Amino acid sequence: MLCFGFTRNLETDMQTKEFYPIGVAGQKWQDAERQQWRDSTSIKRSYHEEVVSKILALKHRFQVEQYGALSYDPERYPLFCIKSNNWDTNKPVVLVTGGVHGYETSGVQGALLFIENKMESYCEYFNIIVAPCVSPWGYETINRWNPLATDPNRSFYSNSPAEESANLIKLVGSVDGTIMVHFDLHETTDTDETEFRPALAARDGIEYTPGEIPDGFYTVGDSENPQADFQAAIIKSVSQVTHIAPADKNGEIIGSPVIQTGVINYPMVKLGLCGGVTNCTYGTTTEVYPDSPKATPQQCNLAQVAAITGGLDFVLSKL
């Protein structure tokens, strides 16, 4: 979730929380508060069982490479990418990233499902590289931040303070060929409003203002290169799997104007977002809503796959 400004209002959920339980209202966190926050986290699921095992099982079909490891625990948190076989520099490159925010489950599992079921059929036309879980510590602890209370999806710039982002930047820099297409797979969850945005306000010493969560799928394009037809193709494809988020009463989604059905735009590079990690022609950040009563976990995973295939089919029509 990109988390800026929000069509489900969760204000009542927060009325019992006058302040976030860590820190002092109006004061930025220092090392002690960051440590207190880190001490409040715990392992809730297994990166190796739910992600690494699935990646390693793909070795007989694709190239599986380790592109780094997190220093918090290198053996527990190796970073893997999966590449198409028979890499051909005459083909355009497609990058798929998931789990930049580790708690956003369908970004990770949707990327793996795409590899398992759809990737081979597109390898004739593209070189494809997938980094399915950029933030494995976040995946295990179901967190938006890394252990330093730093958001990897605000840290895609030179000398990044987030290892997760720095490792992916290095991977992108090593790619042989031109990255034409980038899908960054995310979710918007109820916990964005009940936990992560209040934590962000507390960390930064600012007042928390309740917002709204959009019910449904939407995409975020790059305001510097929006590619409206590409975004529309993704929305059309996903609409066959799950519902598209409507604009709120202000014509917005999470505080940004809806510029076409299910689409808003952000300045990707300026904000240090993963969506700006390449100079691609076609880029999108997907946002699935897993807490909707109208969507199952499998639908959320399939929505991520549909976003990728809908986008790739559009790009193929332009080649």
TrEMBL record:
Give GO terms: molecular function aspect only: metallocarboxypeptidase activity; zinc ion binding
Which segments constitute the Peptidase M14 domain? 43-319
Give the keywords, sorted: Carboxypeptidase, Hydrolase, Plasmid, Protease
Give the species this sequence originates from.
Answer: Vibrio aquimaris
**Any one Gene Ontology BP term:** proteolysis
Which family would the database say this protein is a member of? Belongs to the peptidase M14 family.
InterPro entries with a match to the protein in the record: Peptidase_M14
The highest taxon in the source lineage is Bacteria
Name this protein carries in UniProt: Zinc carboxypeptidase
